[in-house]
Amino acid sequence: MREDVHTEEERKRLTRGSRISGHCRLLVRAGRVVLAVTFLSAMYVGHILADDQSLPSMTIGLQQGAITAIYEKTLAIDGRTYGVTPDVVMLDEHGRVLDPSRLVVTAEVKFHVKKEQSNIIDKMIVTLPK
């Protein structure tokens, strides 16, 4: 009976598990692993590059300088005094909200002043020293 099944499989050229199909399975699995590692690496590198870049669309038309003094309700940027609105939008270089208490002298800033009052800051991007 067993010989009949074996002979029938050979006649139809059916084999249960040839060496070639085993190699194919191994290659498919290896290919999946390589693809997953490549995809994850590309995501990681893309994330690092995105963190290093400034917010280009938000910085168009902004003035820039360095904080030279910090007062209770004003800032001196490159020696010129600016008021800060109570609802100022203050972001770090990655676009995250920055607490005003983290401001330090020598921090690089890009800022926008109100159109009506050229000495009042309403938006600011701060690059803290490393």
Q: How would you describe this protein?
A:
By secondary structure, the chain is of the alpha+beta class. It has 2 domains: 2-52; 56-127, OB fold (Dihydrolipoamide Acetyltransferase, E2P) (Beta Barrel), CATH 2.40.50. The protein contains 3 helices and 5 strands, in the order αααβββββ. The protein has helices at 2-11, 19-52, 56-59; strands at residues 63-70, 74-77, 80-92, 108-113, 120-127. The chain has a 5-stranded mixed beta barrel. Strand 1 (63-70) and strand 2 (74-77) form a beta hairpin.
* Mean pLDDT across all amino acids: 77
Number of strands: 5
In spatial order, strands of the major sheet run 1-2-3-5-4
Please work out how many helical segments DSSP would assign.
3
Q: Secondary-structure element order, as H and E?
A: HHHEEEEE
CATH class designation of the largest domain: Mainly Beta
Named CATH architecture of the largest domain: Beta Barrel
The N- to C-terminal Cα distance equals 80 Å
- Strand fraction: 25-35%
Oligomer: single chain
Number of domain units: 2
In this structure, how is the largest beta sheet organized?
5 strands, mixed, barrel
Bin the helical content: 25-40%
Low-pLDDT parts are 47-53
* Structural shape: rod-shaped
Rounded radius of gyration (Å): 32 Å
CATH topology tier name of the largest domain: OB fold (Dihydrolipoamide Acetyltransferase, E2P)
Structural class: alpha+beta
Attribute tags:
alpha+beta, five-stranded mixed beta barrel, OB fold (Dihydrolipoamide Acetyltransferase, E2P), 130 residues
